[in-house]
């Protein structure tokens, strides 16, 4: 089962996606997501110029060996561009292997550990009243877990507030949007949102919130402590995620569960966080953490230390990533929660898929492989559009974490 072709398809049905499509000599195809928001062409070029020539003629069944070849063999290890490229290849090879076996991918990962995947949706609003009302809309649609974000007076373009209903799309065309951040205003405002949400709807659903790496460790510790009465399912990315030992300080002060890791690309980004039990949910996902092969290693380490999964599922991860994540979620013993923002109709048209949402849960497709494909003709209708994630500045004009 030799690899005959490796295509890298860049398409923008509302936002940019990079997809790897591998075809074997015997005509099997597999797809993998290799989208890195705002840096899409860096990954696409890495794949076409540096990876594709290494794969042609290789045995498509040797997934682990191919992973080791691309990671260990390259000398330059890790990093979001490299690991996203490897993830695209790795995911496509798993898709092929499952199709060759005639089973949905989760069967090759150990079979079902659960029947359905708990997801959380994104409620948002320009005011607390609007966000509270939006939480109600998610609950009405059957969601059992909702993340709540609201604009903060004194800031502009506050992280977490989109203009597009169900989804939050931070990237925009042109140069990066400049947003204004004030930690003091945020810290005064955020707890009042959770109070209003719990006051209106009670405690019979999971409430989540994303801080998006904005706080220092001691600020994050204080926020975690202040919001304990609202019993969050988790507080996401309370402090910049690359400083693993900083989470010790947060942990010492609060029992609010902590989630982090959507920007991680390697097990070494979270080794200390996991082995010191500094977090509760690891948010690494297939596309940015080296594919199914490497994500499984992260999740296996996490299982040993009681850390559960909380896979990143923003709309800048394509339906190929979501499908792959759902197979992993289905199989692993230490599943926690899956983030879910529905894609646009245009994106769903480019990526026909078998997974579906019902009653607060996602169900992976039952067709062989990942259960998702790319319609190359449809993809060609949406050419690449340069877009960037925003940047954040403080009132004095200096840069802040975004
Ligand atoms: C966010 C993302 O989903 C989340 O939790 O943090 O929307 C994130 O901003 C984007 O994925 C960045 O590409
Ligand atoms: Mg996040």
TrEMBL record:
Transmembrane segments: none annotated. NCBIfam families: ManoateDhtManD, PRK15072.1. Signal peptide: none annotated. PANTHER family: D-GALACTONATE DEHYDRATASE-RELATED, STARVATION-SENSING PROTEIN RSPA. Pfam families: MR_MLE_C, MR_MLE_N. It comes from Prauserella muralis. GO terms for biological process: amino acid catabolic process; carbohydrate catabolic process. GO terms for molecular function: magnesium ion binding; mannonate dehydratase activity. InterPro entries: D-mannonate_dehydratase-like, DgoD-like, Enolase-like_C_sf, Enolase-like_N, Enolase_C-like, Mandel_Rmase/mucon_lact_enz_CS, Mandelate_racemase_C, Mandelate_racemase_N_dom. It comes from the Bacteria. This is Bifunctional D-altronate/D-mannonate dehydratase.
């Amino acid at each position: 089962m030799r690899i005959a072709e490796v295509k890298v398809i860049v398409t923008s049905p509302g936002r940019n996606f990079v997809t790897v499509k591998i075809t074997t000599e015997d005509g099997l195809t597999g797809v993998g997501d290799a989208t890195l928001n705002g840096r899409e062409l860096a990954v696409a070029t890495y794949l076409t110029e540096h990876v594709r020539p290494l794969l042609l003629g290789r045995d498509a069944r040797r997934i682990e060996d191919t992973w080791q070849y691309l990671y260990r063999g390259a000398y330059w290890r890790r990093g979001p561009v490299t690991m996203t490229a490897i993830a695209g290849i790795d995911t496509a090879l798993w898709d092929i292997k499952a199709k060759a076996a005639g089973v949905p991918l989760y069967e090759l990962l150990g079979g079902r550990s659960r029947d359905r995947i708990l997801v959380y949706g994104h409620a948002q609003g320009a005011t607390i009243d609007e966000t509270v009302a939006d939480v109600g809309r998610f609950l009405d649609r059957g969601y059992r877990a909702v993340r709540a974000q609201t604009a903060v007076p004194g800031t502009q373009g506050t992280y977490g507030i989109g203009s597009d209903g169900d989804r939050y799309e931070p990237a925009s065309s042109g140069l990066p949007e400049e947003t204004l951040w004030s930690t003091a205003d945020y810290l005064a405002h955020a707890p009042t949102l959770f109070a209003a949400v719990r006051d209106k709807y009670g405690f019979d659903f999971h409430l989540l919130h994303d801080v998006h790496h904005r706080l220092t460790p001691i600020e994050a510790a204080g926020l975690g402590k202040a919001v304990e009465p609202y019993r969050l399912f988790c507080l996401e990315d309370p402090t910049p995620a690359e400083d693993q030992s900083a989470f010790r300080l947060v942990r010492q002060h609060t029992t609010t569960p902590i989630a982090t890791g959507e920007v991680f690309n390697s097990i070494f980004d979270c080794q200390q966080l996991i082995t010191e039990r500094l977090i509760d949910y690891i948010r690494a996902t297939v596309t940015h953490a080296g594919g199914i092969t490497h994500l499984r290693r992260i999740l296996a380490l996490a299982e040993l230390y009681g850390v559960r999964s909380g896979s990143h599922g923003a709309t800048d991860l394509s339906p190929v990533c979501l499908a792959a994540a759902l197979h992993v979620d289905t199989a692993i013993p230490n599943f926690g929660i899956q983030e879910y923002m529905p894609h646009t109709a245009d994106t769903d048209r480019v990526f026909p898929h078998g997974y579906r949402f019902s009653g607060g849960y996602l169900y992976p497709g039952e067709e062989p492989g990942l259960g998702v494909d790319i319609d190359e003709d449809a993809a060609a209708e949406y050419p690449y559009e340069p877009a960037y994630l925003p940047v954040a500045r403080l009132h004095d004009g200096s840069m802040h974490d975004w």
